[in-house]
Amino acid sequence: MKEKTYLKSIGEVNRRFNTGISDLEDVEDNFAFFANQYYLSLIDWDDPNDPIRKIIIPDKAEMVEWGSLDPSMEARNTKSPGLQHKYGSTALMLISDQCGGLCRFCFRKRLFINPEDEKIRDFSGDIEYIRSHPEISNVLLTGGDALMIPTSRLEKIISALFSIKHIKSVRIGTKMPAYNPFRIIEDESLHDMVRKLSRPGKMIYFMTQFNHPRELTKEAKQSLDILRLSGASLANQTPVLNGVNSDPETISLLCSTLAESGNIPYYLFQCRPAVGNRHFTVPVETTYEIYEKAKKGLSGLAKRARYVMSHSTGKIEVIGMDSEKVYMKYHQAANPGDIGRIISFKRNPSALWFDDYL
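Predicted structure:
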């Protein structure tokens, strides 16, 4: 179908949409561009500040020297290529090095710059590692985007994981409901896989990434309904991004629309200090205030997301502020002794990351 045609350069976008965008070759040379016609059609090309445009279209601001290719230091917890084990109960498998579109704020740009470094060729070793670690109860399949691999291969991976007694749930990390909902709508084998494998004690979750309410189109909502009615559970996570969703009204509408679609608002992330991301960042304390204002108009079901920083030491939740201090809590931690620990710091309105408080 025409709307699923993939474009791999801004030149192709110009020819298809007559956008007049130019002088982005140096950005594309450093950080690849990839999107389909469906997602690009959501952009108001007359608005240079269109939030969907900011999500997917390269910007010269990406060339500002700032950040790291591994901002959460995932290499520390990598047990074999593509397998991470940072938190006791959770393992993470990078099962794909491709996405349905390349987010300009991606914190794993390294996968697209040096794909061979972490590319998984054989999952058998990872499955055996998980089998030999009974403390692992859930596995996150991500990448890249887990739905970029064929359903037949995805089913083999999930079946192998569910054959392990101590694995109770598998999470599928994907932005495909936003980028290409037809991947879900038209693949009956995916619906069948969820119906067949999801059962009591063996839960399948789809961890979606909707960053802006306008991504929740009729087709996107249809794809969510299919997954949910097939037996999967849904949860959404998004970073707070300057110029995309960095105001209370947008966050409030995003969370309420997600809840109405049966998709739990799960995490609001501080934008990670990855290479190319400086212009997307919003100060930590400003983001906290944005979310607190957004929650005032939300039902309890819509304001369940935790605002966290996915730091090398753990998931650090920002839980409060007063006139002098900001208060945080280790929601999850690489060191189990830190889980639940509350810490406080002197207010720093310019802080963009946890390390700025140290």
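Summary: The chain is about 30% helix and 20% strand.
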